[in-house]
Amino acid sequence: KSGDYWIDPNQGCTLDAIKVFCNMETGETCVYPSPSSIPRKNWWTSKTKDKKHVWFAETINGGFHFSYGDEDLSPNTANIQMTFLRLLSTEGSQNVTYHCKNSIAYMDEETGSLKKAILIQGP
């Protein structure tokens, strides 16, 4: 039955299990992000005409990284479980929802340009 399950990909102690959503009809497992959402606020206002790239978690004051797994577990625990889940899987995908006023996520519809597309950096 599809629903939330606790899984332990590294098959170690059950105390480091992570909560996931299992879709039994499609065979997919969804790992919840931590935090589950980012607060809505004005994160960045450029005071210069310099159009250089800005990393949310590094350049922006107050920006932060998001990860996967239970917020109550240490980040390293979730990283280990994600590594084992990756090794045990044949494919994976990630969905990121991006809402940012006056910003282009992928393609500028007016020009068809990808120059202003967001960049996503992995671990």
Report what the structure shows:
- The protein starts with a strand and ends in a 36-residue tail after the last helix.
- The model has no long low-confidence stretch (mean pLDDT 79).
- The longest helix has 13 residues, at 75-87.
- The chain is elongated and about 55 Å long.
- The protein has a domain at 1-32 and 69-92: Transcription Regulator spoIIAA (2-Layer Sandwich), CATH 3.30.750.
- The chain has one helix at 75-87, and strands at residues 3-7, 18-23, 28-31, 33-34, 67-68.
- With 123 residues, the protein is an alpha+beta fold.
- 11% of the residues lie in helices and 15% in strands.
Class derived from helix and strand content: alpha+beta
The CATH class label of the domain at 1-32 and 69-92 is Alpha Beta
H/E topology pattern? EEEEEH
Number of helices: 1
What can be said about the biggest beta sheet?
Answer: 3 strands, antiparallel
CATH architectural category of the domain at 1-32 and 69-92: 2-Layer Sandwich
Gap between N and C termini: 32 Å
CATH topology heading of the domain at 1-32 and 69-92: Transcription Regulator spoIIAA
Report strand %: 15-25%
Instruction: Give Rg in angstroms.
Output: 18 Å
Helix amount: 10-25%
Strands, total number: 5
Q: Give the integer mean of the pLDDT values.
A: 79
Strands side by side in the biggest sheet: 1-2-3
Low-confidence stretches: none
Shape: elongated
